Amino acid sequence: MNSYIDILFWIRQKKWLLIAMVYGMCMHHFVTPPTDLNPAAFDALIIISMALILIVTEPLPLPAIAMFMLFMQVVLGIDTANNVASSFMNDAVFFIMGSLMLAVAIVSQGLDKRLALGIITLTGHKTWRIVAGFTAISAILASFIGEHTVAAMMMPVGLTLVRYAHKDPRKVAGLTAALLFSIAYGATIGSIGTPSGGGRNVIMMNYWAEFGAGSVTYLEWIKYVYPMVLFQIPFTVIILLWTFKPEHSNLDSAVRKLVVDVARAGKIKGREWLAIILFILVFLGWVFLSEDFGLGIIALLGVFLYLSFGLVEWQELNRKTNWGVILLFGAAISIGIQMNQTGAAEWIAHVIITNLGRVIDNPAILQGSVSVLLTGVMSNILSSSATVAVVGPIVLDLGGDQILIGFATAIASAFGYFTAVAAPACTIIYSSGLVKSKDFLRAGWKMGVLSLVSLLGLSLLWWPLL
Amino acid sequence: MVATIMTNKKVLFDPKSLKFLTAVSSAEYSKPTLKMGALIASVFDASHGVVYVGERASEFHGSSVNLTRQNLDNWNIIHPGLEVLEWALQELKTLSPDNEELAKIQFNPDHVYEEDGRVRVILPDDKGCRIELVLREGELVDQLRKEIQLEGYDLAIIGGSQNKRHLAHSILQYLPSSIFVLQKFNPRKKYKLLLLVDDSTATGKTIEWGALIAEKLGWPVRTLTVSKTKRFGAGYQGAADKAKAYFDSRGIEVEQFFLTGDPVRTFVEFAGDNHFVIMGASTLNPVKQFLFGSKPIKTLEQTDVPILIVR
Amino acid sequence: MHISADMLFWIQQKRWLLIALAIGAILYFFVPHPQSLGQDGYHILIIILMTLILILKEPIPLPAIALQLIFWQVIIGGSTANEVGGYFMNDAVFFIMGSLMLAVAIVSQGLDKRLALGIIRLTGNKTWRIVAGFTAISAILSSFVGPHMVTAMMLPVALTLIRYTSKKGQSNTGLIAALLFSIAYGATIGSIGTPSGGGRNVIMMNYWAEFGSGSLSYIEWMKMVYPMVLIEIPITTFIILKTFPPELKVLDTAVRHLSVEVAHAGKMSWKEISSLGLFAAVLYGWIALSEVYGLGSIALMGIFLYLTFGLVSWKELSRGVNWGVILLFGATISIGVQMKNTGGAAWLAEGSVNFLQNLIPNIDTLRAVVSVGLSGVLSNLLSSSATVAVVGPVVLNLGGDPILLGLASVISSAFGYFTAVAAPACTIIYSSGLVKAPDFLRAGWKMAIMSVISLALVALVWWPLFQ
User: Fold this and answer.
1) pTM above the 0.90 mark?
2) Is the ipTM of this complex over 0.95?
3) Least CA distance to C8: which residue of chain B?
């Protein structure tokens, strides 16, 4: 009796898993693939669509979905186990792994207190200046060291300020939201600035190499994209202040308490210097050596140095790194590569072009709008990196300049302002429990419009100059 | 430096805030160490940490070992290191039978807090009991150093060990606290306190600690000043005199000795086997200490008596 | 002042890292590569030498060693990050990852209590029969599911028995050692039996496929190797009982206590049944489908099912698995493949054959001696899987039948009886604190001789029947 209830409950919890399975089974067995699509490509598409269902509805933990994608490729005979495995690991996954570990290493150094002090000295105690400072610093830092690191470091600073401003943060909801969103949106708009700003940028670089679309150096990427970051910073500040209207225009006492708090940490210590210097070395490596060695390898080199100098313990890395995410991105990239190799990506691109070609005549506009919209929408549902991993191969097959389309896609994948799942920084501030998902919508649509406009401006005015 | 402390009778440290750490290895061998640790912690009214440093399993099979440990928990079989800590708690209870707070504490292997490379047994944090039980795994000096740095211990109490020569050097060089090495320590034996007094800056603290121990344990006190030449300079003579003055002021009898010769050899010969040596840590530059050793390091390497090096 | 002490401490702790880097730098900059070996091959060998020093002395955590393996391959080894990434991940690494996770998933079900009951029913309460039972069950189970899982499940059983026999003032170190070593050595000798018995077996299968030297199915592997497991079980029992004579002939009180403790478990729950069922399915997949899908994919499928049915949570898996080890195996395999690709492996193989030819004129014997000796010695210093990952490419380049040489090398990599680091089972019982390092030596040399002889027997008598 009891076990029936158990089984029923299990079915209720996993209904989306069952639906995905049934859907996959039907597609595989009963639907004949379109004539211009080979069976392997069809199977790859089935796996992707099942994985999308699973990721969106999440009946399973994400790593389980990663494993699903991996073994299904083998089971459906798309490729051999060894080939699937070797498409799983590449520089992009090394980078994601390395940068997650670097984030743990850096955050555990307690540098956030010094960062807080630096920002406060820079901005003074007016609320609007603090919000502006948070946004600018988050954006600039995130563009180099990745948004998750910055959000993790800035969150405590923001929360401390909020707590010092009022005992009950809910009473100052506007201020709380303004400060936290300045961190999240700042980090998100910054993350497009350089290849090391986010895993998705490196995934895109990896696809360029894989598809033989030429390559972009670190400095070239900055040249192409950084103007957009700088352009967005002031507008983001305006949007945040306008949407959330902080209750206090002055955070005098809160700032003073924060300074006292931070001052207790004492003078900057030897190991903190070492941590900073090592990070600068990694950064220089990214800028100057990434073409030869790859971003991921340099990130791993950095982790090695942190471990060798005893700045972080392996146990800590092992415990705090999210290995499931690494599995997931590895799996997503491997299926992305399969999509290219089996011709599935090309087929979808072809279908899109022929169908939408009737609506929009100009191929350049068509390619641009498809890649931006597809990416922008999906990144709000999935996560930004997973979106690039899946959508990347398709947009690169749309035709046109693969580098520019790739840039547009990577940038558009940062437009995940509407939901808490899209960008890591948004998830982090959502996890504080002090902002609601409604807040994401309230500010998000403005941010979305802003970003679309600035992307358009960038691609029409700036890129032609290069 | 010494003079100011003596004349003002000001104590440099607040004994209430002292933290002592005893390193234990097993129920068999660590009994005297733990006993002395508890005794000296009570003398100084210090809070007392007990650390067990076990060997770390090869990382290759780290997950298998962890898995096994988790499974052993299901069977109520506890980690060997926790067993030693359980013994240590029991031992501490029998050592101070009138401490009621301590007697109330029960050891519960489930109540542990795991941090990075460190397992802490959670004990009720009452006023009467300032005890900490910690399990660590890895190389001894490395782990002790980390523990001392983490918790800010003032004194590390360590049993004498087999491969002494190598350890003595590392322990004195790298542990950032005062160090108490209980070599051949016999709790039943009557010891004489032997204070090594010279013009170094650590002498003042040496004298204070010596006085506290002498008062509480009632051991006779001797001070020894060694010069390489026949002439005892003003610094040496002055230090010895100040020491005597300090002990006199607290009503402790003290015998003074002045010897000539190589300092370390003289210390070692004088100490014999019935002294309990207290000396100041070396103020030499660490690099020089590393290359040429220091007085405390050499003394520790060559003697067989308990020795407390004050930093 | 303070900083210089910190630096000194760092130098003292990491001196082997500095030494390894110095040796690497000297070889890289000042020593020209041999005529017969290309530059890339030479650089790969330098990386391997540095890695061996680091693994032996462990100045930095193992995962950091894995990381340096990866980036040196790109920085001085002359390959791109994506190439290294491709070699890094393969079915063997998926298998190692999957089997570590499966161990977590299964051990957490508490099936070991039932296992204990089963064993005790089978063996009765005579000590020698219990030791024999432990050895046999550990060997047979570990041949299918790997030694780490078996040891994790058997150790509590043994420790419970020990707890109920030990009385105050009575030393029974012999009994303790006999019970613990029967598990460790049983699991170790069993681990060669099938491909899924250990990561190193899968690594070797992966090398065979990678180097195009034929392949062996699951069943074929069993046919060739399982007889050796069966021979070794009784002899191992005998060796253990001779080396560690148990003080008690009969363990009746302990056995009674154990059965009482175990009887609490009650009837099999659905959870236990389904987890057993899933595991049987995985096992079936390994045996019947591994040629098509690969052992690793099947292991991942198993994990997927365990997660799907909620028998284990991802948090448990993520916490229970040491990801650094997975990195390390991926990295050592990638350097093994590089060694083959750059010709470093062939150069080493040729060099060792030429060097030893004066001593052993017979080329077949020579190859066998090199592969067995190299793997046997290295596996006692490193771990057995890392040994196969590094030695494998060299052995397969010795000439001769790659399948047989590979098998011999895999089997002898299980001869890590002397130290606590070699085999997971040995590390686990060592970590219980009840056996000492010299115990491994006392029993280890007998085990090693026995294993070499039975390997020779199997190779000379049994394998020729399949030619």
Assistant:
1) no
2) no
3) B287
